[in-house]
Amino acid sequence: MRIRYVVSSMIFWGREHSLSLEAECELLKSLGFGIELWPNIKGRHECRYERRNWSRLAAATEGMLVAMRSRHDNPTLAQWSEQIECAAMLGANIVTDLPSIGIPDESANGGLNGCDFADQIIKLAEEKDVSLCLESERLATLKEVGKRFESVRYCLDVSHAFRDGECSFTQYVDDLGSRVGHLHLSDNFGPAHHRTPARTRISSDSFGFPDDRSAYQGLCRFWCGGGMPIEEWDYLLESLSRYDNDIVGSIELSPCPPAVMIRQASEFLFETLNWPNKPEKMINSNV
Questions:
Q1: Which domains does the chain have, with CATH numbers?
Q2: With 0-12 CB in 10 A as exposed, 13-18 as middle and 19+ as buried, what is 128?
Q3: Cα separation of the two ends of the chain
Q4: Contact between 39 and 74 (Cβ < 8 Å)
Q5: In terms of Cα–Cα distance, which of 12, 92, 78 is closest to 50?
Q6: How far apart are CA 89 and CA 36, in angstroms?
């Protein structure tokens, strides 16, 4: 396994004074990280992946590892084609979800019928040599999609994996591990914001999603003492190490100051958990 790290651009959403795309990239680059781009800035609807923005994206991310979170506004085939071309230009994989490629999450119950839209999207991605990584949803559906589309890889989101009450976190890792191409590295709270082994029944309100829920504001899972036990972090790394995969690990936390979040998340990943390939800070950087 080879793992390289990016930081999700959503960490900048909670800032009182927004940074420009260029400033975000310079900060992350100086710390040795790449960037996972989101299609929009919070509160705005213009998509970054539109062709008119390509030159700016290319200039801002030059020399960086880039990943892209797909549009999630029911993109048309033309919009999918555009963002796939953008990903090819940036050398990025695309993280997406089932609804964005036209597959409802309950599809596995009755088989994957009516997947013509997904067929076209995946064909476009294959033609441009862009990896599509499906984010954690209901495990049964993900496995069915994987059987049908051999080129699809998985994005294992360590918080989303606990939303499926039918299986455990370790089962997610076991069943998807051989095709994981992307990780969303956050942590989740129990109902009372403390460690709890019974997380399969936790509602989505208990997770650190990028919105305005009180459970999310002001708290960062990597260092506040709640969430996924270290044993399960160890299990994840040990399991993924069995495969010869190139993986992008994306740190997804907010809304504390980005430099603080990155430093403390790095301490947890690389010093407490001993994850490999720690990004190296650029020489002569003052950040």
A1: 2-272 (3.20.20.150)
A2: middle
A3: 30
A4: no
A5: 78
A6: 15
Q: The whole model's pTM is what? A: 0.80
pLDDT tens per residue, range 91-141 = 999 999 999 999 876 655 555 666 899 999 999 999 999 999 999 878 888
Phi (first) and psi of residue 3, to 5 degrees:
-125, 130
Cβ-contact 63, 34 below 8 angstroms: no
Greatest extent of the chain over all pairs of C-alpha atoms, in Å: 58
- Give burial (CB, 10 Å; 0-12/13-18/19+) of 163: middle
Cα–Cα distance, 144 to 154 (Å, whole number)? 12
What are 205-252's pLDDT values in tens digits?
A: 333 333 333 333 333 444 444 467 788 889 999 999 999 999 999 988
**Angle, CA of 30, 276 and 232, to the nearest 5°:** 120
Give SS3 for 84. Answer: helix
Q: Rounded to an integer, what distance in angstroms lies between the CA atom of residue 166 and that of residue 179?
A: 21
Kindly give the pairing relationship between strand 34-37 and strand 93-96: unpaired
CA distance 169 to 159: 9
The C-alpha atoms of residue 125 and residue 91 are separated, in whole angstroms, by: 12
- Residue 255 preceded by cis peptide, ω within 30: yes
Q: Tokens 């979170």 label which residue?
A: 69
The DSSP code for 213 is -
CA distance 272 to 282: 23
Q: Which runs of consecutive H residues, i.e. helices, occur in the chain?
A: 21-30, 54-60, 77-90, 116-127, 139-148, 169-176, 230-240, 258-266
